[in-house]
Each structure stands twice: as structure tokens, then as C-alpha cells.
Design brief:
The complex is a heterodimer of chains A (about 600) and B (about 675).
Chain A: H1 3-31, H2 36-39, H3 41-53, H4 63-87, H5 103-114, H6 130-160, H7 170-196, E1 206-219, E2 237-247, H8 252-261, H9 282-306, H10 310-337, H11 340-344, H12 368-381, H13 396-407, H14 418-435, E3 443-444, E4 447-448, H15 451-477, H16 479-483, H17 489-504, H18 519-549, H19 565-600
Chain B: H1 2-6, H2 11-23, H3 27-30, H4 34-54, H5 62-100, E1 105-109, E2 118-122, E3 131-135, E4 144-154, H6 156-159, E5 165-168, E6 175-176, E7 181-191, H7 199-208, H8 216-250, H9 258-268, H10 271-290, E8 293-295, H11 298-306, E9 309-313, H12 314-318, E10 324-330, H13 336-347, H14 353-366, E11 379-381, E12 389-394, E13 397-402, H15 404-413, H16 420-431, E14 435-441, E15 444-452, H17 459-468, E16 472-476, H18 481-491, E17 495-497, H19 502-514, E18 519-523, H20 529-534, E19 537-541, H21 546-551, E20 554-556, H22 563-587, H23 589-601, H24 619-643, H25 652-684
Parallel strand pairs in B: 9-16, 9-18, 16-17, 18-19, 19-20
Antiparallel strand pairs in B: 1-2, 1-3, 3-7, 4-5, 4-6, 4-7, 8-20, 10-15, 11-12, 12-13, 13-14, 14-15
Helix pairs in contact in B: 2-5, 4-5, 4-9, 5-7, 5-10, 5-24, 8-9, 9-23, 9-24, 10-22, 10-24, 11-22, 13-14, 16-18, 22-25, 23-24, 23-25, 24-25
The chains are: A mainly alpha (about 600), B alpha+beta (about 675).
GO molecular function (chain B): ATP binding; ATP hydrolysis activity; magnesium ion binding; P-type potassium transmembrane transporter activity
Subunit structure (chain B): The system is composed of three essential subunits: KdpA, KdpB and KdpC.
Pfam families (chain B): E1-E2_ATPase (PF00122), Hydrolase (PF00702)
């Protein structure tokens, strides 16, 4: 480990804390309508929205109506995003003249962006028109993030209220999250990114002459986009050469900002944040990393304020941060160690003044080992999925970190809103098992956790493992699934496992190496994303409704304290244990087997 | 306690339990416990695989399959045994109760008078509302209320207490229980319960565990256990295609066998808690029964663990039942002996413990003998709720003793004067936490008798323990505020309710519950019934009225109000045992992964041998060791499940830390050692 790693990690966490604390206060105030921003002129826009849509902002919803509103709103968003992709050929702002996106890819992408996953089976710059990028994809970046905030707010109200029949108004939560939080922050970040060199225009692609002739291999595909293989199962490639390079253009900065802030992660370009037009400098990289975890961290403080005990928010945040630091250090260590095979060959992989050392395959030299491994940890700790390095090229253990972070259920900070509601579900679980050991029936924040609540917790805990494990099994069993796997052995298995983990946990990052833009994977992953999102949201809202109706019990010396270090450890234990017990066999057959094989060879 | 713990594995209980554990293999019984049902189905599947192996379709060596099959069956049997053992203890208790429930002939009256004619009828033919005559030597045919008469009743069949109790019509001693025997005199009883619904029937059903309903927390925990089982089912089922793929791409080894997968599944699902859960519940009920408390629902036992506030009646719980006279404080111009003489005279006919203590004190201090009654042509004035005084009229003297305000009013009506010095004595006495009793002779105030409450020994430490547990104690008393405050301070309770009326009690419970606290209380009188019904845990005294017993959710057969504290501890112990075994069960899984995963995949990926941290003998012995450990751990934990996790009065944070260390960390580490040990023994054989 280099001191560079510790310095970067410490700097990152310090800045994150400094930014998240005031944002948490602001978030709590605007979501509750207490802030002067809401009563002021900007509030006029909010009220105008309600008048236009015929919404009574005072009318609160019970959890069932709230869930119905979330589902209907997301369904309409999906249909709209699908339709726009299919019709983009006839619509303006399409300088490249792209035709309609294929039905399965359009379905996959529509679900992907609505579910805040932003898994991308397509390459943005060669598929989507500027209009589609802006009106379909960027809009869903805002709305899916706002939906996450709305849902976690319903749950927070459930914990804070007592004897209440309602959990809030979805339309109000959605509007406030978008109008007061996501839009202003995105505007600010977009301007800062433009300052670093991120492009923002409506131009067609430009062609530039390269200095030397470039040779590159390309996989040979069949009519379905599946790579062709030789008799040995190796993928067939053609070597091409060129002296010109196409430089894609477009409104990148405006989309980049919300891509990070909303933990969406869907890049304008296929190379995502590794692309110099999306993420040109180390400073833009730091801004992007901060933007990913900013709202998830701030929501913890907002939660503490809403339940009337800021220490509760600190405890959740501490559990997230501790897990995060351990995973980040593991990823940085694994990448800095480099490839064991090369070590055996006598290659110098140590970090030195003139070389980054470690495993630089698939990483940008302007970011290096630490910023790449840190970015990978951040993007998978949150359900962002933006990448500035290729996770497929990480070492076996370095690749295990992002994969397991996703499999933990995206609760280490997690997605905007979804991370906190996921973590709160784990808090209920931890309290339920361990709380009994103090000789009381379990309670969290004065709310008794009873059969209905635990049934919903069980549904949440079951949803994503079912999608990941059953989906992976299906992909390995059927021919269209196996056809997409590029690499042999344990690594090929990891690619499929990673794709399903990413989709079902709404992360959206890809391990690459898997040809996923096929009808089979588009449909499989599309379903995994939809159910990974909404099969969690609905039970979470049910918990919110059930908790809101319960009385709030007083805190005594006999109640389980949920703000101290012991609870933080307990929460971490619950997250890690559930994640380990569910995924250890799969991980053993993937990255662990791969790592041990490399070490032995 | 020691005696009762020894009897846990009494041969008289073991033999039927062993038999029952085999009987419980019936699918209808297994179906009720989802976790163990999976083990049950797994056992059947592996047994079929063994038969197939014998027939030549072996997926693994037949001996190995047989070994796994046998130990899977043992796992089911061990869980059955734990449940049967717990139920057996309950059944033994029920049997002694049932002995009381002999068929008796009832004398059904045509009208609720003794003089009305009666017909002889089987007690099972009685309906609620019927009136029966019970005479000396008769067994009371059903639960009911005394309409007329007074009788001494032997209730030892229910309470185990051999001293007979008095039951009479009206007031708080009018309830009688079916199965008890009238020793002397007669009573007319109105039956209040239909056959099968009587108190004794409910008690038998509760302790027997036959119709035991799952409690709310038990249901919630079962849901969680089912969810965990589903997760592991998913993990194990998808392992087959993963393994097929791995074998395919690596070209080495063979896909994982069904036997190994079933073994892995059974090891992973929470069999330890799944197998012991119902035993823990039955044992909790049984522990309550052992302290002579019958809960009418399991829910009440759980709620007892949650209680934040205990409402305790002062008399009998905090102080010894009766106040005792400790001093005579004469008025100016009156000698102490004169006061003592008058006080003793006024108390001669007073049979209350307080009255007797005045007689005794006067005798001790001034050697005043108890005068023979009838010497003076005495007319006794009994205590009534209206006058709140008692005394004697004789030789033209009217001696009265009573509460200060009652005597003051009485003196006032006679035109007398209540001296300021006496007023001061009254206040002093009250401030000391004692009860002042003013004695007057006609319109002349003689002075004050100090009646002191004796706080029970050790009760203060008990309350300190409760405080450490986060439980607040509130003393309920009819005394005035001054007296109540003094006793509260002496006993160390957190709060008190003075001059308590049933309405004030009910209001206090409601207010406390509105703050989000759970309240426990004891009560016996009919006027306690509303408060009992409102409280979250309500313990009715067995000597109490039928109304009180109906309103409460527990009945204390010993009628000992201090029992409430023990009930809370038993409730907590029940929940702690459940939590500890769940944590232990889940924590165990990590080691089992380290045992089984390398064993089943090492042929495909040889490098996974590095995960075999326990260095187990062979893949097959590794799997078998994990299965054996999983089965044996149930047996080892049966005593803990039945006896309950040791309970200490301390704050929640410390309890959690200690139990997490023991059952969480211990649960992670123990199986590594256990599996290694079993593996070494298997390889020795």
C-alpha cells in the first residue's frame, strides 16, 4: 500500500463529510417543506407543477397508494423511454442519423434507466441520438433518483410517525427531490465539469487524423451480435487498421452531472467515465467520485434529523463508511499488488516515481491505480455503475470487491435513496435477531418489529439473491447465455455473475467481456433490473406503512441502543453475514478460484 | 432449583420423550415446522439415493450416502426429542391438574337458594348460569361465584397450598374454582363457565402445549427462518448448474452430487433454532408453571419481557402485609399509659393485624392484659367505609380510633377540639411513612398510635436490579402522599401513586402507555378488573375474584404480588434464549461452508483446497463431519433451550455485548473446532 492510497482515501472521506453534512440539513428541510426555499419564489414553480397536474399536495397517501403511484409512474417512464428510442430516427437532434434502437435493446435500456440501474448493453455514441440522450435517458436519470429519495422518505416517515395511516405524497416527494435537490446540484456540477473540459454541444461526430496508423482487433460477430468462435471455443477476431479517429460530440456535461449525483452511471459514451470527454482530469474525477456518494451520505443525516435523533443517522453512516473503507483498501491493495503471474516472471510491479506499478491493464494513466480502484469501489458501493477503468481487467480479488459490494444489496451508501432504505431493512433484520438477546421483543427506533414487518424484510432479502443466483444459473444452462461468455474458466463464470449482480442490484456497471447486447441477455437483465428495483421498493413501502401505524415506544435503559458502536458492528455483521452466506459458493467458483489458480501458477 | 434441573432428564420423562420423537416423524407433525420439514424431505431423498446406490445407480459410495442419510434422520429425531422432552414436562404438570378434574356429581338447584330442591347431575352437564349447592366434603363441580353461604375450601389441587381458604358471597373472595373441595359448611355457587372452558381446562391446555398457539414473536421468527431456508435452498439448487458449468469449462472433476448438496443444505439452514424453537416456547411456559403462574396466552409471556413499568401494590409486595403499631403519642395532658389503655380497649374486637398489633404493643409496653370481653357490657362499633372508624361503646364511654381526618370530623360533630399538638404528631408520623391512628374518648382526643409499614427485606436491591434493566417501578397505595413518599423512599421505588383509586390506577396505566411504555400490574379485586384489562401484563391473584381473573392474562396461584418480578425475568429469559440460539445457528454456517465447499469442488478446481482451513481428512469425511456436528449441536443445546439462557439484571447494551460475544462469536468459532474433532474421530474409525 502506498501513502498515496491513504491520503486519497482520507481526503475523499473528509470532503464527502464536509459536503454531506450541510446537504443533509438542507435535504431534510426542503423535503419536509420547512425550508424558505420551498415557501419562496422557487416554491412557486413547485406549486405551479401541482396546479398543472391537478395534484392536491396536502393529500397524503397510504403505503398502497404510494406504491401504486411509484409503479405507475415508473411504468409510464419505461414506455416513454422505449418509444423515444424506437422513434428517434424520425425525430430531431439526430445529427448522426441513427435509426431505431432494436426492440430488445430499447426494452433493456428503458427498464435500465427507469430502475436507476443504467446498465448499458449499447454504445451510447453509436446508438442514441442527442434527443434520446437528453429527453429519454437524462430525464430518467433525474426521475429514477428522485423516486429513490421519495421511497426512502416514505420509510423515514414510517419510522418517525406513530399512529399514522399515511406515509406522504409521492408526487410531492418526487417534485421536491427533483426541483430543490437534483436540479440545482446538477446545474452546479455540470458547470464545474465544463470548466474541466467536459464537452457540451449538439454537434455531429468529428473526424481527426491520428499521428500514426493504429491497428486493433475486433471480434467477429454473427447476425445477432454474438461473437463467433473457432473450434477451440476462442473468439474469432479480425485485425483492422485506421489513420483517422471519430470524435463523438454531444451534450455530455449536462448528462454527466446527474449520472453521478443520481447514482445512475449510464455514460454518454461507451467508455463511460474513462472517456476524456466525460472525465478529463484528476480533479473532474474527484468531483465525480464525490458526487456519487454525496446524496446517499446526506440522506443519512436527513434521516437522523427526521427521526429526531441525529445519532441514529451517524450510526447508519458509520456502518456504511467502515464497510466502504475496508472494501476500498482491499481493492486498492489488490490492484497495487498487480498480477501474481507477472510477479513470478520477474516483472517489476512496485509503485515508484516513474511508474504506477500494480495492475494497470484497463486503467487510465491519468487516474492510476488508486483513483481507479477507489472509483470502482465508490461506484459499486453506491449503485452508480459509472466506471473510469475496466473492471474486467482488475485482478481476481480486485474484481471481487466491486462484485461483492453489489451483492451485499447496494447498501454501503448505495443508490440515492435505495441505499438508505436497503440499509434500514438490514437494521431491522439485525435488531430482530440480536434484539431478542436483550430479552425484549425486537424494536427499532421505538417501533416493534412484528410478523408483517419481518415478512416484508424477508421479501427484500430474498428478492435480489433470487434474481442473481437463478439468473446466473439460467444463463449458464442455456445456449444463448453461454454464447455471450468471452473468457474461459472461472473468469467467464465471474462475467455472468457480475452482470446479473449488477442488474438485479441496480448498479449497472459491467465486467465487460460478456456480449450482453443480445436478445437473451437484454431480456434476462431487463427483467432482473425491473424486479431488482420494484420487488424491493414495494415491500419497503409496506414496511413504511406498517411502522407508521404503530405506536412509538419510549427509550429506556432496557431498550437496545441503536446509535452506539455496538449497533454499528451489529449492522455491519448482518450485512456481511447475509452477503457472505448467500454468495460465498458463487464467489468461490468465480473470483476466488481464479485468484487461487493465478497464485499457484 | 437444583432439584428441578436434575429432573429435566429424569428417566420418567426421557422414556416417553424418546418414544414421542419417533412418533413425531409423521408427515403431519413435520409439516408444522418448515425448517425441520426440509431436513425431513432431505432425509427421505438421501435414503432413496442410498437405495438407488444399492440397486447399482450410485452417485457416490453407498456407505457415504448411508452415513449422510442416517445423520439426517438423527437431526430430525433430535429436534423431535427436544420438543417431546419439553412437552413431557408440561404433560406431567397437566396430569397432576387433570387428577383434580375428576367427574363429579353436582347438586343442581332449581333456584339459587339453599332451600330449593336439587337434582344430581354429571358436572359435564352444567352450563354457565346454573346454580349448584356444594356442601362439606363435596368437590366444586365448576368455576363459579358464591351466591350464598360461607365455606372453607381446600384449593391445594390448584395451588399446592394445603391451608384451606375461606370463600363467601360478595366481596373479593367469592370466586371458586372447579376441582377444589369444600371442607366445611356449604355454599351456593353460580356456575360461570361452560364445560371445557373452565379455568382448569385452560390451564391443562396451556401447560400441555397440545393446543399451543405460536406467539407473535415466534411467528415472526419462523417467517425469518423460512426466508433463510429459502435463501439457502436457492444457493444450493443453483450450485448444481454452477458446478456443471465449472466442470464443463475446466474439463476436470465431476459435478457435485445430490447427497453432498442435501448435506450442504441441511447444514446451512437454521436447524439448530428451527429444531429447538418450539421446545423453547414450551419450556418457557413450563418455567412459569414452576413458579406457580399460569399464563392464559403465550403472548403475555413475551409481553412480560417487554415491560417497562411495574405497578406494584404497596401492601404485600413492597411492605409486609400488615402494618404494626410501634408507638403511642399522647395528646397534651394525657399519659402514654392512658392512651395505650384506650387504644387497646378500642382494638379488642378488631381482628385485623393492625388491631392485634395495638393490643400486643400495649401489652408489651405497659403490661396491659387483654381484658376478658363481656366484663363491661360492651358494644362494639365495627369499621365501616362511611365512618372509617371503629371502637367500643361501654359504660357511657365511646372510644373511637380511626384516620386523622375521620376522627377530626367526628370530634367536630361532637363539638370537641382537635389539639394542634396532635395535629403535629399526625403529620410527623405520616412524614415518617407510618400511618397515624387517632384515638378519641368521646369528644376528647387522647393521642396518636403510630402504625408502621415494614418494608420487605431485600426488596430495595430487587428494585435496583429492575432499574438497571430499564424497568421503572411505581408503588400503588391508598395512603396519603406524605406516607407514600416516605415508604417509596425507603423501598427505593422510582415513583408512587398515593391515595390510589381504581380510576386513578386506570388513568395512570393509560397515561404510561400513551408515553409508549408497556405496563405490568397485579390485582385481585373486582374493582381492579378495568386496570387489569388495560395493562399489557396483568397478573391476577388466584384468591381474587372471577372478574379479576378474567381480566388478567396470567394467574398467580400463590397470590404473591412480588411474583411479577419473576414473571418479567422469565419473559426476558424466553426471548433471550430464542435470540441466542438464532444467532448461534446462523453464525455456525460460516465454518460449514469452509468444510463443505472445498470438499465438493476440489476435484474441479484443485486450488480451492486452500479454503480447507480445517485440513479435514477427506472430502467425504468433511461433509459427514459437518452433518454430524449439525445434528449433535441440537442435542447439546437441549439443556440450554429447556433451562433458558442465564439472565442477569443489567442494561441492554451490556447484555447485548455479552450475548453477542458468547453466541455470535462463539457460534462462529465453535463449529470449526467441533467439525475438526468429529473429522479426526471419523478418520480414526
Amino acid at each position: 500500500m502506498t501513502s498515496n492510497a491513504y491520503v486519497q482515501l482520507a481526503l475523499y472521506l473528509t470532503l464527502l463529510g464536509l459536503l454531506a453534512w450541510p446537504l443533509g440539513r438542507y435535504l431534510a428541510d426542503v423535503m419536509a417543506g420547512r425550508s424558505r426555499v420551498v415557501t419562496g419564489p422557487l416554491g412557486g414553480i413547485e406549486r405551479a407543477c401541482y396546479r398543472l397536474a391537478g395534484i392536491d399536495a396536502e393529500q397524503e397517501m397510504d403505503w398502497k397508494r404510494y406504491a401504486l403511484a411509484v409503479l405507475l409512474f415508473s411504468l409510464i417512464g419505461t414506455l416513454f423511454t422505449y418509444a423515444l428510442q424506437r422513434a428517434q430516427g424520425w425525430l430531431p437532434l439526430n445529427p448522426q442519423g441513427f435509426g431505431a434502437v432494436s426492440p430488445d435493446s430499447a426494452f433493456n435500456t428503458a427498464v435500465s434507466f427507469v430502475a436507476n440501474t443504467n446498465w448499458q448493453g449499447y454504445a451510447g455514441e453509436s446508438t442514441m441520438s442527442h434527443l434520446t440522450q437528453m429527453l429519454a435517458l437524462a430525464v430518467q436519470n433525474f426521475l429514477s433518483a428522485a423516486t429513490g429519495i421519495a421511497v426512502v422518505y416514505a420509510l423515514i416517515r414510517g419510522l418517525a410517525r406513530h399512529g399514522a395511516a399515511t406515509v406522504g405524497n409521492f408526487w410531492v416527494d418526487l417534485t421536491r427531490a427533483t426541483l430543490y435537490v437534483l436540479l440545482p446540484l446538477s446545474l452546479l456540477l455540470a458547470v464545474l465539469l465544463v470548466g474541466q473540459g467536459v464537452i457540451q454541444n449538439f454537434d455531429a461526430d468529428r473526424s481527426a487524423q491520428t499521428v500514426t496508423t493504429v491497428h486493433y482487433p475486433q471480434a467477429r460477430l454473427d447476425a445477432h451480435g454474438t461473437p463467433l468462435r473457432d473450434a477451440a471455443g476462442q473468439v474469432l477476431t479480425d485485425t483492422l487498421s485506421t489513420r483517422s479517429q471519430v470524435l463523438s460530440q454531444g451534450p455530455v456535461a449536462s448528462q454527466e452531472a446527474i449520472k453521478m449525483l443520481g447514482t445512475n452511471g449510464g455514460g454518454f459514451f461507451n467508455a463511460n467515465s474513462a472517456h476524456p470527454y466525460e472525465n478529463p482530469t484528476p480533479l473532474s474525477n474527484l468531483m465525480q467520485m464525490l458526487a456519487i456518494l454525496l446524496i446517499p451520505a446526506a440522506l443519512c443525516f436527513a434521516f437522523g434529523r427526521e427521526v429526531g435523533d441525529i445519532r441514529q443517522g451517524w450510526a447508519i453512516l458509520a456502518a456504511m463508511a467502515l464497510l466502504f473503507v475496508v472494501f476500498a483498501l482491499a481493492a486498492i491493495w489488490a490492484e497495487q499488488q498487480g498480477n501474481p503471474t507477472w510477479g513470478a516472471l520477474g516483472v517489476d510491479q512496485a509503485a515508484a516515481t516513474w511508474q504506477a506499478g500494480g495492475n494497470m491493464e484497463g486503467k487510465e494513466t491519468r487516474f492510476g491505480i488508486v483513483a481507479s480502484a477507489l472509483f470502482a469501489t465508490i461506484t459499486t458501493a453506491a449503485s452508480c455503475g459509472a466506471v473510469n477503468a475496466m473492471h474486467d481487467s482488475f485482478t481476481a480479488l480486485g474484481g471481487l470487491v466491486p462484485m461483492w459490494l453489489m451483492q451485499l444489496g447496494e447498501v454501503v451508501f448505495g443508490g440515492v435513496g435505495s441505499g438508505l432504505y436497503g440499509m434500514l431493512v438490514f437494521a431491522l433484520l439485525a435488531v430482530f435477531i440480536a434484539g431478542l438477546m436483550i430479552g425484549r421483543t425486537p424494536e427499532y427506533l421505538g417501533k416493534k418489529i412484528e410478523a408483517f414487518d419481518i415478512k416484508m424484510v424477508a421479501l427484500v432479502i430474498l428478492a435480489t439473491p433470487t434474481l442473481v443466483l437463478a439468473g446466473t444459473a439460467l444463463a449458464l444452462l442455456v445456449e444463448p447465455g453461454r454464447a455471450g461468455i468471452l473468457n474461459p474458466g472461472g473468469h467467464g463464470f465471474s462475467e455472468v455473475l457480475y452482470a446479473l449482480s449488477s442488474a438485479a442490484n441496480n448498479n449497472g456497471s459491467a465486467f465487460a467481456g460478456l456480449s450482453a447486447n443480445t436478445p437473451f441477455y437484454n431480456v434476462l437483465l431487463g427483467l432482473a433490473m425491473w424486479f431488482g428495483r420494484f420487488a424491493v421498493i414495494v415491500p419497503v413501502l409496506a414496511i413504511a406503512g406498517s411502522l407508521a401505524a404503530k405506536p412509538r415506544l419510549a427509550v429506556t435503559a432496557g431498550t437496545l441502543p441503536t446509535h452506539g458502536p455496538l449497533f454499528v458492528l451489529l449492522l455491519i455483521g448482518a450485512v456481511v453475514l447475509v452477503g457472505a452466506l448467500t454468495y460465498v459458493p458463487a464467489l468461490a467458483l468465480g473470483p476466488v478460484a481464479e485468484h487461487l489458480a493465478l497464485r499457484e501458477s | 432449583m437444583t432439584h428441578q434441573q436434575l429432573s429435566m432428564f429424569d428417566p420418567a420423562l426421557l422414556r416417553p420423550a424418546l418414544l414421542d420423537s419417533v412418533r413425531k416423524l409423521s408427515p403431519r407433525v413435520q409439516w408444522r415446522n418448515p425448517v425441520m420439514c426440509v431436513v425431513y424431505l432431505g432425509s427421505i431423498l438421501v435414503t432413496l439415493l442410498w437405495l438407488a446406490a444399492l440397486a447399482g445407480h450410485a452417485e457416490a459410495p453407498a456407505g457415504f450416502i448411508l452415513g449422510v442419510a442416517l445423520w439426517l434422520w438423527f437431526t430430525v429425531l433430535f429436534a423431535n426429542f427436544a420438543e417431546a422432552l419439553a412437552e413431557g414436562r408440561g404433560k406431567a404438570q397437566a396430569a397432576s391438574l387433570r387428577a383434580a378434574k375428576q367427574r363429579v356429581l353436582a347438586k343442581k338447584l332449581s333456584a339459587p337458594r339453599r332451600s330449593a330442591g336439587y337434582e344430581l347431575l354429571e358436572s359435564s352437564g352444567l352450563r354457565a348460569g346454573d346454580a349448584v349447592l356444594v356442601e362439606a366434603g363435596d368437590v366444586i363441580p365448576g368455576d363459579g361465584e358464591v351466591l350464598a353461604g360461607v365455606a372453607s375450601v381446600d384449593e391445594s389441587a390448584i395451588t399446592g397450598e394445603s391451608a384451606p381458604v375461606i370463600r363467601e358471597s360478595g366481596g373479593d373472595f367469592s370466586a371458586v374454582t372447579g376441582g377444589t373441595r369444600v371442607l366445611s359448611d356449604w355454599i351456593v355457587v353460580r356456575i360461570t363457565a361452560n364445560p371445557g372452558e373452565a379455568f382448569l381446562d385452560r390451564m391443562i391446555a396451556m401447560v400441555e402445549g397440545a393446543r399451543r398457539q405460536k406467539t407473535p414473536n415466534e411467528i415472526a421468527l419462523t417467517i425469518l427462518l423460512v426466508a433463510l431456508t429459502l435463501v439457502f435452498l436457492l444457493v444450493v439448487v443453483t450450485l448444481l448448474p454452477f458446478s456443471l458449468f465449472a466442470v464443463d469449462v475446466s474439463g476436470a472433476g465431476a459435478p457435485v452430487g445430490i447427497t453432498a448438496l442435501v448435506a450442504l443444505l441441511v447444514c446451512l439452514i437454521p436447524t439448530t433454532i428451527g429444531g429447538l424453537l418450539s421446545a423453547i416456547g414450551v419450556a418457557g411456559m413450563s418455567r412459569l408453571m414452576r413458579v406457580n403462574v399460569i399464563a392464559t396466552s403465550g403472548r403475555a409471556v413475551e409481553a412480560a419481557g417487554d415491560v417497562d413499568v411495574l405497578l406494584l401494590d404497596k401492601t404485600g409486595t413492597i411492605t409486609l402485609g400488615n402494618r404494626q403499631a410501634t408507638a403511642f403519642l399522647p395528646a397534651p395532658g394525657v399519659s402514654e399509659a392512658e392512651l395505650a389503655d384506650a387504644a387497646q380497649f378500642a382494638s379488642l374486637a378488631d381482628e385485623t393485624p393492625e388491631g392485634r398489633s395495638i393490643v400486643v404493643l400495649a401489652k408489651q409496653r405497659f403490661n396491659l392484659r387483654q381484658r376478658a370481653l363481656g366484663d363491661h357490657g360492651i358494644g362494639f362499633v365495627p369499621f365501616t367505609a362511611q365512618t372509617r372508624m371503629s371502637g367500643v361503646d361501654c359504660d357511657g364511654r365511646a372510644i373511637r380510633k380511626g384516620a386523622a381526618d375521620a376522627v377530626r370530623t367526628y370530634i367536630g360533630t361532637l363539638g370537641g377540639h382537635f389539639p394542634a399538638e396532635v395535629e403535629r404528631s399526625v403529620e410527623d408520623v405520616a412524614r415518617r411513612g407510618a400511618t397515624p391512628l387517632v384515638v378519641a374518648d368521646g369528644a376528647r382526643v387522647l393521642g396518636v398510635v403510630e402504625l408502621k409499614d415494614i418494608v420487605k427485606g431485600g426488596i430495595k436491591e430487587r428494585f435496583a436490579d429492575l432499574r438497571a434493566m430499564g424497568i421503572k417501578t411505581v408503588m400503588i397505595t391508598g395512603d396519603n402522599r406524605l406516607t407514600a413518599a416516605a415508604i417509596a423512599a425507603e423501598a427505593g421505588v422510582d415513583d408512587f401513586l398515593a391515595e390510589a383509586t381504581p380510576e386513578a390506577k386506570l388513568a395512570l396505566i393509560r397515561a404510561t402507555q400513551a408515553e409508549g411504555r408497556l405496563v405490568a400490574m397485579t390485582g385481585d379485586g373486582t374493582n381492579d378488573a378495568p386496570a387489569l384489562a388495560q395493562a399489557d401484563v396483568a397478573v391476577a391473584m388466584n384468591t381474587g375474584t372471577q372478574a379479576a381473573k378474567e381480566a388478567g392474562n396470567m394467574v398467580d396461584l400463590d397470590s404473591n404480588p412480588t411474583k411479577l418480578i419473576e414473571i418479567v425475568e422469565i419473559g426476558k429469559q424466553l426471548l433471550m434464549t430464542r435470540g441466542a440460539l438464532t444467532t448461534f445457528s446462523v453464525a455456525n454456517d460460516l465454518a460449514k461452508y469452509f468444510a463443505i465447499l472445498p470438499a465438493v469442488f476440489v476435484a474441479t478446481y484443485p486450488q480451492l483446497a486452500a479454503l480447507d482451513v480445517m485440513r479435514l481428512g477427506s472430502p467425504q469425511s468433511a461433509i459427514l463431519s459437518a452433518v454430524i456436528f449439525n445434528a449433535l449441536v441440537i442435542v447439546f443445546l437441549i439443556p440450554l433451550a429447556l433451562r433458558g439462557v442465564r439472565y442477569r439484571a443489567t442494561g441492554a447494551a451490556r447484555l447485548l455485548r455479552d450475548n453477542l460475544l458468547i453466541y455470535g462469536l462463539g457460534g462462529l468459532i465453535a463449529p470449526f473446532a467441533g467439525i475438526k474433532l468429529i473429522d479426526m474421530m471419523l478418520n480414526l474409525l
